[in-house]
Amino acid sequence: MSIFYKDQRLAHMSKGDAYLWSKFLDKYPNLYGAYEYDVRVGKGVVLPVTAPDWLKKSASDLSKKRIDVVGHGRKHIAVFEVRVNAKANVLGELISYRYLYATTFNPIKPVIPILITDYIDADLLIALRELNFIFYIV
After folding, report:
1. Which of 62, 71, 93, 101 is the least crowded, having the fewest Cβ atoms under 10 Å away?
2. What is the largest CA-CA distance in the chain?
């Protein structure tokens, strides 16, 4: 069953993540001009040149990393990680998704990582503050 928020399909998100994202959008409806969902970044798996083209394309598409949400603002691009009960392991995704988005799309505007969650574990909170990463607890 697909999950929708105001006609936007959120099928790639878990029910908990989609709930948090919906709460975030309800609380901050005009923070960004446009959003993209399930944005694929990186190179993915590269099969041998002898593999059939359809298999190479499928392997590449299915193995690329997926950013939950990308927000397009006037001065920057935000890569959102939406996570129920966020712990320290989310840092790797925030850092790598920012890098992968920048290298995949080569945007003119700066790319910033943002965490949307309902709970932040104490160790993660220290790291987020040290790295000056933006986060929202909804």
Report:
1. 62
2. 51
Q: CA-to-CA distance for 98 and 71, rounded, in angstroms?
A: 12
Domains of the chain: 4-39+66-137 (3.40.1350.10)
CA-CA distance, 128 to 101, in Å (whole number)? 20
pTM: 0.84
Residue keyed to tokens 């298999």: 55
Q: Which residues pair with 35 in a beta bridge?
A: 71
Three-class DSSP category at 133: coil
Which of 69-101 are b and which e, b meaning 16 or more Cβ less than 10 Å from the residue's Cβ? bbbeeeeebbbbbbbeebeeebbebbebbbebb
Q: What is the pLDDT of residues 105-117, one digit of tens each?
A: 999 999 999 999 9
d(CA 79, CA 71): 6
**What distance lies between CA 116 and its chain's CA centroid?**
10
